[in-house]
Amino acid sequence: MGLVSPLFVIPLWADLLAVGVGALQGAMFASQFRDRRLDWLGVAIIGIVVGFGGGLLRDLLLNVELAPLQSNWYVAVATGAALLGMLLERVLSKLSRIITALDALTIGLFGAIGTTKALSLGLPPVAAVFVGVLAAVGGSILRDVLLTLPIALMHVGSLYALAAAGGAVAIAGLLEFGVDVFVAAGIGVALTFVIRILSVLFGWSLPEQRAITRLPKLPPLPAMPGRRRQSATVEVERGRVVTTATGIIHLHATTAAIPVVSDAPGAEPRVRRRSPIPGASRARR
């Protein structure tokens, strides 16, 4: 049995609130790009797409009827909010944090609605969180695509999808413990809002992509058991050490290739010196 009753239905006012806030924020965002020379219809389309985007992606994933197309109120609210955002953009833009606050509220509302709707249809918590996050960020992705902007979600910046994920996880966790669905949704929206606002104020972001450029050095393999250790020859700064009858000789790297010979088994090794005269090489003790 799901964490939310199958009979649970998202209230129309809650869905319309998310659509209206999303359309208002989307239109205000689009109105800032005056160099694009968008007309009223263009701004309204951007606002409607932001307002509808999260809900459309949510319902497509859940394979249910598209909620924004089941009532006349959705189009009316989205269009009115988009035009209002366009007309009030110059006034509201003076309050620099208005758009950020509306954006945080939008992703919180869509994330909460998407998560609870997925749970009510019997999806497991992890899948429901995924649906909630996609519903939260879907409108902004479509907005950036229509405005031919780099998709903000995929670049280094203040926490966006992570804020939505935090709220969605909180909702799923609270419902697991039997908290009322409206209380859990409210806490999820508030948590998403707080994470998003704090990330903007303090510049929190995920680290930029990076690759491993140097692999860690592996320790040398231990000597095989039963293998004879060559104690007479040891590397020293790419040279070697030779034990002779007269003591220890440290051979430099340039002379490390000098062969070491012995007269008989068990005799002390000697260093063979090469004479500059061909055929006159001799072994010196």
Description:
Strands 1-2-3 form a three-stranded antiparallel β-sheet, with no helix packed on it. A three-stranded antiparallel β-sheet has the order 4-5-6, with no helix packed on it. The protein folds into two domains: 12-202, no CATH class; 233-276, no CATH class. The longest helix is centred in the first third of the chain and has 23 residues, at 40-62. The chain starts with 11 loop residues before the first helix and ends with a strand. It is 51% helix and 8% strand. Helix 1 packs parallel to helix 3. It contains eight helices and six strands, in the order H-H-H-H-H-H-H-H-E-E-E-E-E-E. The protein has helices at residues 12-31, 40-62, 72-87, 89-92, 98-120, 125-146, 161-176, 181-202, and strands at 233-236, 239-244, 247-251, 260-261, 270-273, 282-284. It is mostly helical and 285 residues long. The radius of gyration is 36 Å and the shape is globular.
Mean pLDDT: 78
Main β sheet profile: 3 strands, antiparallel
Strand order of the largest sheet: 1-2-3
Oligomer: single chain
What portion of residues is helical? 40-55%
**How many angstroms separate the termini?**
92 Å
Count, helices: 8
Q: Give the total of beta strands.
A: 6
